[in-house]
């Protein structure tokens, strides 16, 4: 027998999987449930041990979503949803509900960059009169796994590898792709992760999704399954990969600065809250399982009902006290909102409180100002680390006679919360519902729904990520997974990374599309986009002033860039130099040149703008000055504004990108 303290574990050696108490486990992929589609059972000691250990692994930084930024705002309902829910903030349009939103990346530490390829967290805390409701979601509607017991495994795989803590803020490494290759259920999510959705242009320009299936319950006890959406007023827009990498070096705080400055300027970000609703009796009416977190509900089959607007209108006063200490939990609900048996959601209902206990030092994290509800709260909980309330009275238990049974429970018809009475009938089992076994059809649906340039970006992303992997086995397994989604994509990526293609074609045969999944079908506005105005010689200040007024009329931001900072006149000033500015930090560029030769930094600036498919305006005294550059004056999105006028450039800014240049 080993002496205590001398035992070491080498996970590179073959061994049977056990609990921390040494109990050998026959299953490690599924939680213990009441039937394969039923709720997770509290007696699942293996899940609780595994998740508890995972939740306490990082102190005090969040285990995931460590890098984030938050802002305050309000939510306003359009019309009552009393037919679907009895939640007060969703049935009373006259009420304005305060909110706090935290955006985040998943993989990196607090010191990582904003523009890495990653899922973005989109968590909203509604401070309602009935208590706090937390909608804790992402900017993608699905997830990598189906069962919460595998969440520690997924995060261990995507995090920097344990032997060298590399890479930071990135999924392009062997352990992540080894996990993907071993878990076919990740096929749909990996397509989203390789898409442009993973590199948003701005936090203000990305969708939010609750991911899970919840229930809405009305005053009569009638239930609807629901998925929550946030639709941005500015549309859904992304960076290109080369641009995202440049920004990570030029300004690693790009997204948080963008959000902060927009709110400070009064350009308040807005999203509409959308609901997808399925009556309880239609639960099994689709060719996918509505409880599967790796599946979305196509908007063409289940339309999104827009029910209200959220506006972020105030930055935090103290980043740590608010953004860092805010504690979200999908189990923070109000009457009229309940859960489904989604096995990933069921695990999160345990995990989040457990995490906050570790990260915020004890059970009283709800007393931190950013987490406090706006309504009074009374219960018999006492003491604990960081207790900030001085409780009066003799009793701290329920029921009691000494204090008249105070605080007393509240009946449901007076606002007390009651769980939806779902009938459960099933055997205790660790397993996966047969209806969860379709791993590839929605991955194919997503890919089919994209434009050619979006599909090319996915191919490029796979090639980059897998090209960073060292293991031939990992690469081969990833190609095998892609081969189930699209054979041509698998062949193209395999050729780029030098990996074999499976002999047999296992591609899902489906031409089904969902146009709502393509970012090409989004809103395009000029509002809050930014233009770099590049000076090469002294400009005509009067003409420039007129152009700037046109920009302001369209809510377009701008920076004037030259070799040094100086005043053009009493009201106009150069704000940036070619050392501090970079084309990747702007949505468009306007070059005003009154010289025969364009300086090298300026030429590099406009060439990069052109390379990233952005609109480029030119006012050149010497049209031959860019004759030998890669820029084509005939290309789409390139404007000679001395002949076309400034409005044509503004129209180009509104459109955003000119993907035709890639042809």
UniProtKB/TrEMBL annotation:
**Which InterPro entries does the record associate with it?**
Catalase, Catalase_clade2, Catalase_clade2_helical, Catalase_core, Catalase_haem_BS, Catalase_immune_responsive, Catalase_large_C, Catalase_sf
An example Gene Ontology cellular component term from the record? cytosol
Active site annotation, chain numbering: 65, 138
Q: Which GO terms describe its molecular function?
A: catalase activity; heme binding; metal ion binding
Q: Name one Pfam family in it.
A: Catalase-rel
Question: Where do the TM regions start and end?
Answer: none
The cross-references to Gene3D superfamilies, in alphabetical order and at most eight, read: 1.20.1370.20, 3.40.50.880, Catalase core domain
E.C. designation(s): 1.11.1.6
The cofactors it requires, by name, are:
heme
The residue ranges of the Catalase core domain are 18-406
PROSITE patterns in alphabetical order: CATALASE_1, CATALASE_3
| GO annotation terms (biological process) | hydrogen peroxide catabolic process; response to oxidative stress
Keywords attached to this entry: Heme, Hydrogen peroxide, Iron, Metal-binding, Oxidoreductase, Peroxidase
Catalytic activity, reaction form: 2 H2O2 = O2 + 2 H2O
Cross-link for 3'-histidyl-3-tyrosine (His-Tyr), residue positions: 329-352
Chain positions recorded as heme binding sites: 62, 102, 151, 348, 352, 359
- Entry function: Decomposes hydrogen peroxide into water and oxygen; serves to protect cells from the toxic effects of hydrogen peroxide.
Q: What PANTHER family does this protein map onto? A: CATALASE (PTHR42821), CATALASE-B (PTHR42821:SF1)
| Family to which the UniProt record says this protein belongs | Belongs to the catalase family. HPII subfamily.
Question: What's the protein name?
Answer: Catalase
Q: Which organism is it from?
A: Neobacillus mesonae
């Amino acid at each position: 027998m080993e002496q205590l303290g001398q035992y070491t574990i080498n996970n590179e050696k073959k061994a049977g999987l056990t609990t921390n108490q040494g109990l050998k486990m026959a299953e490690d992929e599924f939680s213990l449930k009441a039937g394969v589609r039923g709720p997770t059972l509290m007696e699942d000691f293996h899940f609780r041990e595994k998740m508890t250990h995972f939740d306490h692994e990082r102190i005090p930084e969040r285990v995931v979503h460590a890098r984030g930024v938050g802002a305050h705002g309000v939510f306003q309902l359009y019309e009552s949803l009393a037919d679907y829910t009895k939640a007060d903030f969703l049935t009373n349009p006259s009420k304005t509900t305060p909110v706090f939103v935290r955006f985040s990346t998943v993989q990196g530490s607090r010191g990582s960059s904003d523009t890495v390829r990653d899922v973005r967290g989109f968590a909203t805390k509604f401070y309602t009169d009935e208590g706090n409701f937390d909608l804790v979601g992402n900017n993608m509607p699905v997830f990598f796994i189906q069962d919460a017991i595998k969440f520690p495994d997924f995060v261990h795989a995507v995090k920097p590898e344990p032997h060298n803590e590399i890479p930071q803020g990135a999924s392009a490494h062997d352990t992540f792709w080894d996990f993907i290759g071993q878990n076919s259920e990740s096929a749909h999510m990996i397509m989203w992760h390789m898409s442009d959705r993973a590199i948003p242009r701005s936090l203000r320009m990305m969708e939010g999704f609750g991911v899970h299936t919840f229930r809405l319950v009305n005053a009569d006890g009638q239930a609807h399954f629901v998925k929550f959406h946030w639709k941005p007023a500015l549309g859904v827009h992304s960076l290109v990969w080369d641009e995202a990498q440049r920004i990570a070096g030029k300004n690693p705080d790009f997204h948080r600065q963008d959000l902060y400055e927009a709110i400070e300027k009064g350009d308040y970000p807005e999203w509409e809250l959308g609901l997808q609703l399925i009556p309880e009796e239609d639960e099994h009416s689709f060719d996918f399982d509505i409880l599967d977190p790796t599946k979305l509900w196509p908007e063409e089959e289940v339309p999104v009902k827009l029910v209200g607007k959220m506006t972020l209108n105030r930055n935090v006063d103290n980043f740590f006290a608010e953004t860092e200490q805010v504690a979200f939990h999908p189990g923070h609900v109000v009457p009229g909102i309940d859960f489904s048996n989604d096995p990933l959601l069921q695990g999160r209902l345990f995990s989040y409180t457990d995490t906050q206990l570790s990260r915020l030092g004890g059970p009283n994290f709800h007393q931190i100002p950013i987490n406090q509800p706006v309504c009074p709260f009374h219960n018999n909980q006492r003491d604990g680390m960081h207790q900030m309330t001085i409780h009066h009275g003799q009793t701290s238990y329920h029921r009691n006679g000494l204090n008249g049974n105070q605080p007393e429970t509240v009946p449901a018809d007076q606002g007390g919360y009651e769980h939806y009475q779902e009938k459960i009938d099933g055997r205790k089992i660790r397993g996966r519902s047969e209806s969860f076994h379709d791993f590839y059809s929605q991955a194919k649906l997503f890919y089919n729904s994209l434009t050619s340039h979006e599909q090319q970006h996915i191919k490029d992303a796979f090639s980059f990520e897998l090209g960073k992997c060292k293991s031939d086995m990992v690469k081969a397994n990833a190609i095998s997974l892609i081969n189930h989604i699209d054979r041509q994509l698998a062949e193209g990526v395999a050729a780029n990374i030098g990996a074999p293609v499976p002999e047999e074609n296992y591609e899902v045969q489906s031409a089904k599309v969902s146009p709502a999944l393509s970012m090409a079908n989004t809103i395009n506005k000029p509002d809050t986009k930014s233009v770099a105005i590049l000076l090469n010689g002294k400009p005509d200040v009067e003409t420039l002033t007129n152009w700037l007024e046109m920009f302001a009329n369209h809510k377009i931001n701008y920076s004037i860039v030259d070799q040094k900072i100086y005043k053009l006149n009493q009201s106009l000033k150069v704000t940036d130099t070619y050392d501090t500015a970079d084309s990747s930090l702007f949505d468009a560029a306007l070059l005003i040149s009154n010289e025969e030769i364009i300086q090298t930094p300026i030429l590099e600036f406009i060439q990069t703008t052109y390379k990233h498919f952005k609109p480029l305006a030119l006012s050149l005294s010497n049209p031959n000055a860019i004759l030998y550059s890669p820029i084509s004056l005939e290309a789409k999105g390139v404007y000679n504004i001395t002949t076309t006028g400034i409005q044509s450039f503004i129209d180009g800014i509104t459109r955003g990108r000119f993907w035709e240049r890639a042809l």
